[in-house]
Sequence to fold (256 residues):
Amino acid sequence: MKSDHPEADCPMIVLLDRIADKWAVLVMAMLRHDAMRFNELRRCVGGISQKMLAQTLRGLERDGLVTRTVFATSPVTVEYAITTLGMTLVSTMDELRIWSEKNINAVSAARRRFDAARQNIAPVRMRG
Amino acid sequence: MKSDHPEADCPMIVLLDRIADKWAVLVMAMLRHDAMRFNELRRCVGGISQKMLAQTLRGLERDGLVTRTVFATSPVTVEYAITTLGMTLVSTMDELRIWSEKNINAVSAARRRFDAARQNIAPVRMRG
DNA sequence: CAGGATCCTTTAAGATACTG
DNA sequence: CAGTATCTTAAAGGATCCTG
Fold:
């Protein structure tokens, strides 16, 4: 059953859900300065499967954020590039990626503190 | 089996995955200017389940982005607020939400164009 | 090269019920 | 009020094979 909250499928939240996506962020970041081909992206975005890359690119294309251009070379070449609409979003998305890079240590430290603190609260059933 | 790509669980990508999350974005946006209580957040963030809210808040707390403060009133009151670290991220996260609000129409239009274009390509098997 | 189709496992997430 | 625990269903995602 769907939720009875009408906001649940609010279009804005659906869209936010699509752009607040790690693969979308990484792909857009790669395309930020240059158009790229499929397997080129696959190599540069570490750890993405071909399925997820295809799916992510299809979604970005559908949303009007990237273009897909086929060149009739042999074998065929396909180039992805950011649209004008995409340009209005890419810097914000990339800031998210950059923040992650810069603050991974601070966050890791916070996690260790949190997990350590939980240990002290945890079920203290020793020889209970 | 886990992927054999070492980048697959790159800590930066794991972190990006956690902050590029629609509920995290919406919760952080709510806390941007004021601390808020659990059920207050639940009401203001439309369509979030209590489970997802609890889970999102726990994650943000663990990552050092929000604090959780318990007041021994009756019944108990719990207040969530953004940390100093969280403040360095909240504006970027919120830009994502604001972009979604502003560009939902442009994206919807792009989707209609994309879907319409696909119709013309689709299997044209009429009276095959 | 650039994917689509399929299978199959893992994870996410909603509903529901209960607690201090 | 502010959650936790459990169950179950829906969805995500990887691996693999195949094609123009």
